[in-house]
Amino acid sequence: MKKLFLFTAALSLMLFSCKKDSTNNGSTAHVTVKMTDAPGAFDAVILNIKSVIIVTDKGEQTLNVDGGAVDILRFRSGRDTVLADQDIPAGTIQQVRLVLNDSGNRVIVAGVSYDLTTPSGQTSGVKLNVHDKLTAGIAYTMRLDFDAAQSVVFTGNGKYILKPVIRAIATAASGALTGVVSPAASSPKVYAITGADTIGSTTDATGKYYFPGLAAGSYQVKFVPVSPYAIKTVTNISVTNGTVTDMGTVNITQ
């Protein structure tokens, strides 16, 4: 019992210094929306983005953008900027809409600033068809790849209009880990450990545990049950991006 107490205390200190406990959330995916750009022959292309709307088979989710106007030409050759960051219900993406504010959109050419007319962007939003699946517990990066050279059009009468050419690509940026302990009455605290990082979780009434948003890598999973059950460690558990790793049933003995 003394060893058990010391071990539990040590794990508590590790958790305090590393990461917060995970939650058993099996219904949402975390989405970070980023924008990048292909080069265009302009000094700047400034978009005043209001929100990003993600439509899935679970409904419509609005992700507000609080960063103000963005010069998208600053984010090219592999660079990007975060527009929004939010949990949304897991499901299949049907459409992404980029909604712009009514003013503040402009293009700068040879040092001269011109208003950028975006008739379709302020109301219902610029529509992008996407058909990626968001798995619960997985973190995703939604990258909006804006092609400025094709998107900004000179009308011939001193005006520029925006006809957006954008690719939306969703990429899994994490994995998840789940399983069940038996018996459920052992009620263990569960720790997923990789390197110097430790993430803690608990089991529910059925013995299930769930770690969403884990970085890809090899983990040891440690179970610290209530007395009189014994501590158990399972090693070499592989977590990969875009996948929920199921450890199956882990038996806890006395």
UniProtKB/TrEMBL annotation:
<dbReference type="InterPro" id="IPR025491">
    <property type="entry name" value="DUF4382"/>
</dbReference>
<dbReference type="Pfam" id="PF14321">
    <property type="entry name" value="DUF4382"/>
</dbReference>
<dbReference type="InterPro" id="IPR013784">
    <property type="entry name" value="Carb-bd-like_fold"/>
</dbReference>
<dbReference type="GO" id="GO:0030246">
    <property type="term" value="F:carbohydrate binding"/>
</dbReference>
<keyword id="KW-0732">Signal</keyword>
<protein>
    <submittedName>
        <fullName>DUF4382 domain-containing protein</fullName>
    </submittedName>
</protein>
<feature type="signal peptide">
    <location>
        <begin position="1"/>
        <end position="19"/>
    </location>
</feature>
<feature type="domain" description="DUF4382">
    <location>
        <begin position="28"/>
        <end position="164"/>
    </location>
</feature>
